[in-house]
Specification:
Elements: H1 7-10, H2 14-28, H3 32-35, H4 43-56, H5 62-67, H6 72-76, H7 83-104, H8 108-124
Length: 133
């Protein structure tokens, strides 16, 4: 019998998520639309996002131990997030994921699974415009 591995295990653990998030936030830092939502210093955002993603994809529950239940929609409610902001966020995350896939040789199935999650998650954060206010 073969044991199923988590995405966290498959990608090699926490370092993958730190690298993914660093690439993502490097892209965000050059995006005026998204930087209007973020503090100038992105260090905490990088740390929290990497911790959350590592936990979500099967890593240790460090994020929950520090911050409690993720409650992503609640944590993002104070920011006006519409389709434009979602699209910018999603495009940067997908670009970072694509770069990681190339350098780490990620199978298409894992890339697609992660990309689909990022699309669903970012869409769920929309709270401004389009009837979701």
């Amino acid at each position: 019998m073969t044991e199923a591995r988590t995405v966290y295990e498959f990608v090699g653990g926490e370092h993958f998520f730190i690298e993914l998030v660093d690439d993502f936030y490097d892209r965000v830092s050059a995006d005026a639309i998204l930087m209007a939502l973020y503090p100038e210093n992105l260090d905490e955002a990088r740390r929290k996002t990497a911790s959350f993603l590592a936990q979500y994809w099967g890593g240790p529950p460090n994020y929950s131990a520090e911050r409690g239940h993720p409650r992503l929609r609640m944590r993002h409610a104070r920011f006006a997030i519409g389709l434009v902001e979602r699209d910018h966020w999603l495009n940067h995350m997908r670009d970072a994921l694509h770069a990681m896939a190339k350098t780490h040789g990620l199978p298409v199935a894992i890339q697609q699974t992660m990309s689909d999650y990022f699309e669903r998650g970012s869409t769920a954060m929309i709270n401004h415009g389009n009837g979701r206010e």
